[in-house]
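To the team - S-adenosylmethionine complex, inputs and output below.
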Amino acid sequence: MTSPTSGLVELPRHPDYRPPEPFAGPGHPMRRLTRATAFGESWTRDDAARVTEVFDELAPSWSSDHVDPLKAAPLLDAIDRGGVPTDGRWIELGSGTGAGCRALDGRVDEHVSLDLSYRMLAHAPDHALRVQADSAQLPLADDTADVVLMINMILFPLEVDRILRPDGFVVWINTLGDQTPIHLPPADVAAALPGEWTGCTAEAGTGCWAVLRRAAAS
Ligand SMILES: C[S@@+](CC[C@H](N)C(=O)[O-])C[C@H]1O[C@@H](n2cnc3c(N)ncnc32)[C@H](O)[C@@H]1O
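Output:
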């Protein structure tokens, strides 16, 4: 089914899908920050400092409390059914303690993990290629990524657009669907990114995913 508003194709739910428990509603502060940042409000040093402090504190227990399988289910479904290539360079923004890296281990050619929080990165697997950086201003060249992956991560549309190759893919995952604190519906992700985007979306695990590509110029 194609959503009339976004042009994204909605695929059937994965058979293992189960709805998330109520967790974070629209009033959640992270939710408000995510929407404001995606739709053009400037990301300040104070925002970066506040978010760093939150995740530095959560880092030691993040992988055990925010269990990796929740992350793997939608990510692996996005690869299976979303048509994302597994060769090329995957750049993961807001990679945290490495759930994405663990799920993708042996599945993708190259994976680079970037996060604002040094402490989150410190808990990622030893083999992960890790970079501490603010996604509002990435230390990466233009057109560097074949795939930009974000799992429960704030969207920085201009930087994602800049580092992604013209024919590259964006993979967007919210592991608790609309109960994820850092949440945007897939159609809003497509709307926030510069230009026109096409792709598909589905629900898997307790979450949802979207795979987006730039629409071909007519
Ligand atoms: C909700 S956690 C998700 C972590 C990981 N993706 C996962 O699913 O386990 C959000 C992560 O995004 C990082 N983050 C938030 N804002 C960021 C920014 N501006 N640049 C880079 N990382 C950021 C946080 O430090 C945190 O590790």
